Fold:
Amino acid sequence: MARESDTLNNRFPMSKVSAVIVSYRNEEMTCRYVNEELCKCPEIDHVVIVNNAATDESNEALHAAIPNSEVSSGEEYHNSKVTILYNKENQGFARGNNQGARFVDRFIHSEYLLFTNDDIIISDADVISRLIKQRESDGSIGCFAPKILKSDGSPQGPFAYWSLWRRYGLYTVYPIGMRWFRRVIDKKRAQQSQQIVSGFYNTLVGCFFMVSRSDFMRAGMMDNRTFLYREEEILAERLKAIGKRSYCEASVSVVHLGGQSSYKDTKRKYNFVNQTIRDSDRIYYHDYMKYPLWQIRLAQNIQKLLCAIFA
Structure:
């Protein structure tokens, strides 16, 4: 008797790349991205949209605006190019991406997964092919991504490892600096964009990166406990456990429209680092980097106090 996976493979030929997009009350931008940006890359032959906090109206809006799409509970697939999965509640970024990846693993069997935000401009049409070429030349590559630029041309990662105290030092200095020394910081950012070179880094930017489907599933996917933030660092650690590293291909780039950081509201003060970030930091630094909880709480409380006073 044939296994279900064998039957599905015969019915649906293996695809090269499936893109997974977690959408949250943003149907217009999601539709624009699928219809105008992802179509620039012929290697992407399937798209999974995970519609968080979905309503019947939002599902229908996505379905009506995107050709060759279907709305699915996740239990069925009818050979559409775009599948819209839905959650009545906002499941967060990690859970949403894992949901999309499991669907691809069950039905589509793509060789690669592209995890992407919907606020991306694909400036280099060969970005996917260049990334795949690099990955296929080096099997030690786990996550791989192009250079990510903000709309002003400044870089958004990739990153070396940030210790707990370095990260919370930056969380303290940045909002204070953006209030008092913004021109100096903006100038420094512009200079940094010229310094990014292709190579291995500790962490890539989560708005646009790829991984082989088999590596992603073998590493255990993303950590469902993180609602938002630290997914990239945690996935990098999980991939390291199976002998894989994170690689940035700086010869190609995409623009992340949501990557602009501006300190417009001085009343935000220490809430610049909100509770969601702190919760994810505790998971990352305690469970993966083995910091004691008391040290994490101390760093977080010091950062709160200093930003409340000076930011």
Summary: The first strand starts at residue 17 and ends at 24.
